[in-house]
Design a protein that fits this description.
By secondary structure, the protein is an alpha+beta fold. The protein is built from 5 helices and 10 strands; from the N terminus they run H-H-E-E-E-E-E-E-E-E-H-E-E-H-H.
Length: 207
């Protein structure tokens, strides 16, 4: 899949601003348990462009990204607003990603680029879309995997308005969020290891 200059610029910006976790294909079982996340705003500056990204990153308990949602605004030498959704690879491209607010009518987001580890879909970020998010309770984002199965992911809109209208997080706050996520993943890994060991011991004792 090729990309033009503006799409490529937006995609690279997304990778810089929203790259809080790695994206890779996961089994459904990994997606059922998700790490606690939420909406937050991160802002940065690249050359002559100010970039703000209001985002929510849905991460599995093992630390792998399930779905990334970004509302990106560029101001300065480049002025652009986009709404992007990132999903793991192994997606069927023609269906795109379906976006529903409160289970309403689905809007299609076309994929603009696929990297080796993720695919990105986008639509222009409009005031109407932002308003619907502020009034809504949740988003449902549905991609279709290579087995032609729909993979709906629900994202709560709780806290969206505060993140969108409020100040950006400081770097220390972002680092704190990442540390909490790392601690959560580490604990889940320890719990899983203990559970497997207990099951192995139980199986040995039964023989």
């Amino acid at each position: 899949m090729r990309m033009n200059g503006s799409i490529g610029k937006a995609a690279s910006i997304f990778a810089v601003v929203a790259g809080a976790a790695a994206v890779c294909a996961m089994p459904a079982s990994a997606q059922q348990q998700q790490a606690p996340q939420g909406w937050f705003k991160a802002c940065t500056k690249q050359q002559d462009v100010d970039i703000c990204n209001v985002q929510n990153i849905v991460v599995a308990a093992n630390g792998q990204l399930v779905t990334g949602v970004s509302l990106i605004e560029l101001k300065g030498k480049v002025n652009r607003k986009v709404f992007q959704v990132t999903v793991p690879t192994g997606r069927l491209v023609p269906p795109g990603i379906g976006l529903q607010v409160n289970g309403g009518k689905a809007q299609k987001l076309d994929y603009v680029i696929c990297f080796p580890d993720r695919c990105v879909a986008e639509v222009p970020l409009t005031d109407a879309l932002v308003t619907s998010f502020k009034k809504g309770a949740d988003l449902t984002l549905t991609s279709v995997n290579f087995q032609n199965q729909q993979n709906p992911v629900k994202v709560s809109l709780k806290g969206f308005s505060d993140a969108f209208d409020g100040p950006a997080l400081q770097q220390s706050d972002i680092e704190d969020r990442q540390k909490k996520l790392q601690d959560y993943v580490a604990k889940n890994s320890e719990d899983l290891t203990k559970k497997l060991k207990d099951e192995q011991d139980k199986a040995k004792n039964a023989n």
